[in-house]
């Protein structure tokens, strides 16, 4: 998100754009993301914003010479109940109004697109042809290169330790290597955004929660262009990964972690016992998983928010202090568009599209209560795949 914001600010002609990273680029949640890029969200403007990510990841290599690993494989979503199918039907109608192509499929058609799945319990499915996946580290490096090409400066191994204020607004930052005078600060500190916000008395309701996925050894019959797959009734998602499968999901009993205890660039220890509940559900859908060799169980932490939406915009407490964080495990999908939206917001002094679902000003005083924020973030994680009712 930091690289995307810097890239878009520099591209919009802003001078003196500096990105400060305390460790190395991608060493936060980005280096261990699975890389699925799905676009449909419940609001038109956020869906459009994710569509910009797709367009950007498709075109960045031509602009910067750095590949992004973008693969337009399409995205498949399954329905195992009438209620879930109604949700897909509603989403496909909504997608059309958002300008996003989404087709409804029969179980047989779903099986044709994803031959490794059991379809006996399926009522139907939906397919978004323009969804896909990208390599999170490569996307970041491409955005970083693009930002530099447009004149931004990126400094690694430079921790920001303080925010200087003058007359009630941002006047600069303190870093381990000295101070920088600036009128605008953007907090893109990922799952540390809350702690980083606190330095300047800005409330950023982000909670760090563990998230795991499994990578298998190659499996026969897994093509490179396999669509991404979401099986919400079994709480799991999938993508092709070097001839095998990557399978992750959302446990109903998430584990909160302490961001101060997490080191950038390092994974958390894999928790096989906790992941077992998802593995059991996944084997029922993809029987080939039962005998597949396990290459790695990745356990990473990610920033989640009290309402499942990310956080964008100028903090109401402090002029010149902007936030782009709390991506609820879809920050790769969102960062391209979110970085552009935030850069435009900074340049124009106001949002350039309806960003009310993600606007930082949506939060009330309850967000300054860490216990409330934590319990809501846990609830939202646990209900990630709950059926959404018509709005
Ligand atoms: C297991 C797992 C799987 C995921 N799968 C997907 C997926 O398939 N698709 C998807 O879209 N998303 C996925 N995500 C989510 C995605 O990884 C994140 O949403 C995204 O990486 C967030 O990017 P970011 O730039 O906001 O934060 P980060 O990548 O965490 O970057 C924040 C940076 O801020 C730096 N920083 C913090 N404090 C300071 C300071 N004081 N000074 C200087 N620098 C500082 C950190 O070092 C860090 O590099 C997944 C996450 C996990 C954990």
Explain what you see.
With 391 residues, the chain is of the alpha+beta class. It has one domain: FAD/NAD(P)-binding domain. Helices cover 31% and strands 23% of the residues. It is built from nine helices and 18 strands. Strands 4-5-3-13-14-15-12-16 form an eight-stranded mixed sheet. A hairpin with a 2-residue loop joins strand 8 and strand 9. The radius of gyration is 21 Å and the shape is globular. The two termini are 29 Å apart. The mean pLDDT is 96. Flavin-adenine dinucleotide (FAD) binds next to strand 12, strand 16 and helix 8.
- Evaluate the radius of gyration: 21 Å
Estimated structural class: alpha+beta
Q: What is the ordering of alpha helices and beta strands?
A: HEEHEHEHEEHEEEEEHEEEEHEEEHH
> Which CATH class applies here?
Alpha Beta
What helical percentage do the residues reach?
Answer: 25-40%
Give the beta-strand count: 18
Provide the number of structural domains: 1
Hetero groups? flavin-adenine dinucleotide
Would you identify the CATH architecture? 3-Layer(bba) Sandwich
Low-confidence stretches: none
Shape: globular
What is the CATH H-level superfamily? FAD/NAD(P)-binding domain
Overall mean confidence score, pLDDT: 96
Number of helices: 9
As for the CATH topology, it is FAD/NAD(P)-binding domain
